Amino acid sequence: MDGGTLYTIGDLARRTGLPVKTIRFYSDRGIVPPVERSPAGYRLYDAAAAARLDLVRTLRDLGIDLVTVRKVVDRELTLAQVAAAHAEALEVRIRTLRMRRAVLTAVARRGSGPEEMELMHRLAGLSEDERRRLVGDFLDAAVPDAGPGLAGIRVSLTPELPDDAEPEQVEAWLELAELMADPSFRARLHDLTTDHATDHAGGHGEGVLRDAVSLGVWAAGKALAAGVDPAAPESAPVVATVAGEYARLLGRPDDAGLRRRLLARLTAANDPRRERYLRLLAVVNAWPPPAPSAPALDWLVTALRTHPAP
Q1: Alpha carbon distance 54, 26 (integer Å)
Q2: Which CA distances in Å does 195 have to 157, 183, 191, 261, 265?
């Protein structure tokens, strides 16, 4: 189309592929007005109007509403301003769609009923502030304020769902949020962290492994790899090593009472929800997956029951 030629609506329709009805609508709204009319009353458009129509079509294909389109073509808004605003709106929409897809995927995999689906939908729709409040409430209930090392434990248990989360991160967040809302799981973690603080309160732990659980997993893992039967006499030296280090941590002798206390700690830590929480947390935070601790804890619990006293 050259600058001196005038074109009918039919010409523009053939050029752009838009229906005549759509172009007439834009014309009636003043978005792409004709430059004049033919003697027979037909609307005529010049090359500038055709270029304006191309811009309108592109903006509408991008989902921009007619009011904003009108402001762009009338130069009330710059194209850059509109592009930035709509890119931001699309980002919000994309996050919403990811959340919805994660809910539907989780429902399909788990065979969820209406009540569980409603809960997952509500958890997926939480704003960033609402997610932070949920996490904060969970940590306040699960991790006491006082005690050595507990600030680090709070950080290590904190999920942070990124704005551009992948579907598997969203799905992991949904299950994690359900766990955080479970009162019995909160109570279990509270007991574990309180026990941790109590064990370290005497200040005798310098130079030993951090706590009973990590020490037990480390020692029992080696025994597992070596094929030692936890119910056999050969497991006694492993139990003695773990109990001895735990006794040194507490500043007391290895005896039947200490081993009962150690057994209680390890049994509580062997809650499958704890390991599931840590695995989901790694997915949400994009951390390396943690090594499973349940096999080692199972081994050591059996070994401690086999050797309840030195």
Answers
A1: 12
A2: 17, 18, 6, 10, 8
% of the chain surpassing 90 pLDDT: 44
pLDDT confidence of residue 195: 85
Would the pLDDT of 150 be above 80?
no
Beta bridge pairs of residue 36? 44
Query: Tokens representing 108?
Result: 């399909």
- Residue 208: its pLDDT value, please? 40
Tell me the β-bridge partners of 215.
none
Where exactly does CATH 1.10.1660.10 map onto the chain?
A: 9-77
Look at residue 180 in the predicted model and tell me its pLDDT: 94
Treating both helix axes as pointing N-terminal to C-terminal, what angle do 79-110 and 167-180 enclose, rounded to 10 degrees?
Answer: 60
Supply the pTM of this predicted model: 0.66
Half-sphere exposure (CA, 13 Å, Cβ side) for 192?
23
Q: What is the mean pLDDT of the chain?
A: 86
Q: Decide if 84 contacts 41 (C-beta within 8 A).
A: no
The set of residues, in sequence order, having a beta carbon less than 8 Å from that of 228 and lying 6+ positions away, is: 234, 235, 238
Q: What is the average pLDDT across 137-157?
A: 80
Q: How many CA atoms lie within 13 A of 187 on its CB side?
A: 3
Could you give the CA distance from residue 81 to residue 71 in angstroms, rounded to a whole number? 11
Look up residue 81 and give its amino acid: Q
Q: What is the pLDDT of residues 85-122, one digit of tens each?
A: 778 878 877 877 777 777 777 777 777 778 777 767 77
Which residues, other chains included, contact 14 with Cβ-Cβ below 8 Å and sequence gap of 6+? none
Architecture in CATH for domain 9-77: Orthogonal Bundle (1.10)
Residue in 15, 224, 127 with CA at minimum distance from that of residue 7: 15
Secondary structure in 3-state letters for 33-80: CCCEECCCCCEEECHHHHHHHHHHHHHHHCCCCHHHHHHHHCCCCCHH
